[in-house]
Protein 1
Amino acid sequence: MALCIYCPSEGPFHKEHVLPANLGGFKNAEPLLNCICQNCNNRTLSSLDSYFVESGPQAMFRCLLGIKGRAKKGPHSPYEYGPRGEPAIKLRARPKGADFECLYCIDEIRDGKFVGRMLRQVVVKDKEGQWHPIYVSERVRHIGSLRGLIESEVDGPPTDIQAFDDEDSEGWLFELLKKEYAGNFTSRQMPAHETENPPIGDMVVGPEYFRAIAKIAFHYYLLQDNSVGGDEREFSGIRDFILKGGDADRFVTSDLPLQKGACFGDPCHLFGAGRNGQSVGAWVMFSAMPDGDNPQRYYVNIGKDPGHIIRLRSNAWAHRYRYYSAGEGEKNNYDGEIVPVPAKLVRMPRS
Ligand SMILES: [Zn+2]
């Protein structure tokens, strides 16, 4: 009788997808069966998934690819709300000819490159001469909300305000500013797309992010290696970390990214796992873009190799979760497909 690997429950079991379902549906994806009980999934594990897809680079990636996930709601914009209680992503770049930075979002890929678009905003100069770009969402249509926004960012009355809005909004932002800050602001038209490959803003992620990475890597390994069950005592450390948190550095470390464009021609996630008789580990890389600089690659220390006494032959697996291009996607019912890649692309774990 199979038991849940996280608790001794006899089920019912949850059908676990290695990659969170909100990152899309993939052809050839096999779920982990009879491994994780519904209780553990609903209580803890599924919330790690939602944290993961709404934080960090994945949040941006989902917006770019328009991945809707199971809920079929559009992904929310991480530039507007901030993923999961974290501050909104601030992507700053300097418009041509300006002596201050403005806020951008990335919502388009053109010829394999990110294209930034300016957000509606006010850029406010404080009494020390520092500029503060402040995003103004569609909901800020009242002078009180706008004043509150500015005051939360800048001490004292602003000495200058540059306001950016597009033609379509019929100038409501400028009208608001006229009432309150007349004579102290300049209205500007938002430029069309002009900033290619803008710097990716600092993204803050919480500890759940690394637990989610550990979970994805561990479950990926369990799916590949049929000779382990996941409940071995060698894996009790990582199971505890996934379930309850703890010292993330012990389980998840970052590694140098692969070389630019090393192994893909489409947006993808790359997973690999292996055992060498001494230890078991996995490499994961999320949200890689073709031709872009590869994202951070993480090494996940899964545990000691449970087969170390018998000296099992070393073994390794690697897969690319490749997103379909627009034309391909229409022909299929999936967002992408899983393709095996040579495991040597993904080095064996350190022992
Ligand atoms: Zn359980």
Note: The chain has a mean pLDDT of 83.
Protein 2
Amino acid sequence: MTVSIEIKDIGKIFGQGAKAVTALENANLSIACNEFITFVGASGCGKSTLLRIIGGLETHTSGKLEVNGQPITGPGVDRAMVFQHYSLYPWLTVIENIKFCRQLKAHTANRTDADVETAAGRADALLRLMGLTHVPHTFPNQLSGGMQQRVAIARALMSRPPILLMDEPFGALDAQTREVMHDLIRHVHRIEGSTIVFVTHDVEEAIYLGQRIVLMAPRPGRIDTIYEVPLPSERQQDMKLSPEFLSLKREILDRIRETSGMKTDFEQLERLSAQTSDNEV
Ligand SMILES: Nc1ncnc2c1ncn2[C@@H]1O[C@H](COP(=O)(O)OP(=O)(O)O)[C@@H](O)[C@H]1O
Ligand SMILES: [Mg+2]
């Protein structure tokens, strides 16, 4: 296995003294090249913090982090990020958004016409891959959320990043669009061969997409359990109804409830509804 990302005893504390929050404690994990790994867990367990540390947008307080054997000192072209909110430039069209970073670089000294042509070819290929060939000159606010997120993914892929970091990228989409995006991102993973680290709070999404699932737990934020997904590499939507899928989903949901201490307090709810009806009398 060629290791892409090596996380060793990573810790992160925000703030100081009485107000200090341990967002991450002793996180250890090796992520392989071309792996599709998903992170799942209750809100506040440090998923985004860990992803941002890998992306170089946040520093860790302790431990060691390496990408392809090199320590991380900040963001780099080897790691592209996609967030829940599409973060497109509203004044640029779809194709201009996709080419944006390239255009910035086109003004640098050591860039040739051939480079610019290659970039144009790559942008067209990404338009096709993401099903955007009918909207290249459309502005983001004329597109649905799903289409905007396709543009954001195409833009992230533009520089052929070996690593794609995604933080709840489909969290704002409706269920049907999300299913389409799931099959699309798995297709992208096959074609582009990048390592994908995908954060979600949706267990079904984590299982359907991932080869491995990292379950995180809160207070302090930490890696709790790592699961291998017992599904073939070609995924189909109806696998979500298979016994292996459902049993893993139940196991993970139970573990999230156990570690987060969150459960529905039915007695409390009954008392509340009894009080409400007393007041109405
Ligand atoms: N910039 C910050 N300053 C202070 N605390 C933060 C900051 N970012 C995150 N935290 C805290 O760190 C913990 C983990 O947050 P986060 O990584 O966003 O969790 P998740 O993405 O799993 O919901 C939470 O308790 C959160 O309040
Ligand atoms: Mg988060």
Note: The chain is about 40% helix and 25% strand.
